[in-house]
Amino acid sequence: MMNICFKPRCLFPRIDPAVVEPNDWDEWGRLVAAMVRHYKDHGTKVRYWEVMNEPDIGETGGCPYLFTAANYRPFYEHTAAAILRADPDARVGGPAVANPDSPILAALLAHCAMHKVPLHFVSWHIYSSSPAAVRRTIERRRAQLAKYPTLKGIETFLEEWNVSLLQPLRDRRFQPCYVAETVYEMKEAGLEYGCYYHIRDYHVDQDRFDRFMTPGGSAAMASGGIATTRTGECSTMRTTSTIWLRITARSF
Question: N or C: which terminus of the chain carries fewer CB neighbours within 10 A?
Answer without folding.
Answer: C
